[in-house]
Amino acid sequence: MNNTLQRGQILDRYATHINAARVGLLKALQIDLVVDRSEGYRVWDMDGREFLDLDLRAGVYNLGHRNPNIIAALKDALKNDDMGFALFPGANQSLLAEQLGKSSGLSHTLFAASGTEANDMAIQVARRITGRRRILSCSSGYHGATGLSSAAGNPEFSMRFNSDYPKEFVTFGVDEVETLELALKGEDIAAVVLEPSCNAAGYPSVRPTFWSDVRRLCDENGSLLIIDEIVTGLGRSGVPWGFQNVGANPDIAVTAKGLSGGVYPIAAVMLSDRSAAWLTQDFAGFAGTFAGGELACAVGIAALELSTSESTLARVNQNMQCFGRALHKLCSRRSWIAGVRQFGLLFGLELEGEDSGIRMIKHLFDQGVLTFPAANAGNVVNLKLGHLVDDEFCDGLLERMDGAFESFGRTI
């Protein structure tokens, strides 16, 4: 950070040259943070105030900010590598693809630079394989900000730019298996696109048979199943991939965010044998300029290994249980908290009252906890706990949350 600039100057520059509406909203919510430095699961503003990061940029910082193992992997790769070539095989690229296949059971991998690009690619592959165009997804979902990915999920994201495709992208509500079944019976759906747990909806639960029903209906009607693991994957639910936790068997799975280790952008589309069959004939494929560069893949190898190691998964499972119990106990003392949702280390605090989650984040911010409400559920606050947090961090977080709940309760 250039400390010769004051916080107000940075906010003004951002508003002038990037996004004035964002700065205006952050100021209105009184959470207009300018980060000066970050380490582990903590960030500090320009006045030296510490915040516990429970947003993690939706999963980019699963392993913490500036994780030393990830930085070491990047530095080591820089001794010999650069971005590599789009059309020539690379050692790091090949190794990462192999390791992703071993962890997921999906045989082939395509690389991209971001999750939105990867979901776009997944949809294109599904259309190519099936010869169909229509895509079915959850109306509360979010799968990216550009191209075909923005048209999947909540249509508001694509409608803002007049880029929605209402005839080709159709939706159903969370857990509405009957609606999904009716849509699939038309036998014109190329793919169903879903997350193991819907981040933008605040991690709502589904019926026990939901995922087996989805897989069966896709098979019966010739549609592919695309699982978006951008938020839920890479060890976040105590196993390498969220679809392994819910018992889904995707034809295509997408990962990004955490694969970057928080230092170098990379995304991947993992394909089953059937979904990858076209790669025996198509030389070009998706040969993007920034897709699967050697530096990015070196970081991805380190991030995948650390995220899914035995010791990391043991820590994740411990925190899922211990922090989960403590959070439920803390929330049970407040009548205005309707419930606590959980998927692995992802928690959704469901509050009474419309847009109550938006009001709550200011109270958490004042206690030094950084998080946001669910994008499509204004009464739910999303909390994303890092893979490697220790007991001291969890205890301090619960203490700060208790303070935030006390102050919020006095406003009701």
Topology, please?
Elements: H1 7-17, H2 20-28, E1 35-39, E2 42-45, E3 50-53, H3 68-77, H4 91-104, E4 108-112, H5 115-130, E5 134-138, H6 147-151, H7 156-159, E6 169-172, H8 177-184, E7 189-194, H9 210-221, E8 224-228, H10 242-246, E9 252-255, E10 267-271, H11 294-307, H12 310-332, E11 337-343, E12 346-351, H13 356-366, E13 369-370, E14 372-374, E15 377-384, H14 391-409
Parallel strand pairs: 3-13, 5-6, 5-7, 7-8, 8-9
Antiparallel strand pairs: 1-2, 2-3, 4-10, 9-10, 11-12, 12-15, 14-15
DSSP helical segment count: 14
Q: What class would the helix/strand composition place it in?
A: alpha/beta
| Rg over CA atoms | 21 Å
What's the total count of β strands? 15
Please list the strands of the largest sheet in the order they lie side by side: 4-10-9-8-7-5-6
Average pLDDT metric: 95
The helix content, as a percent range, equals 25-40%
Span of the ends, CA to CA: 39 Å
Runs with pLDDT <50, length 5+?
Answer: none
Q: In one word, what is the shape?
A: globular
Largest sheet report: 7 strands, mixed
- What order do the helices and strands follow? HHEEEHHEHEHHEHEHEHEEHHEEHEEEH
In terms of DSSP E residues, the strand content is: 15-25%
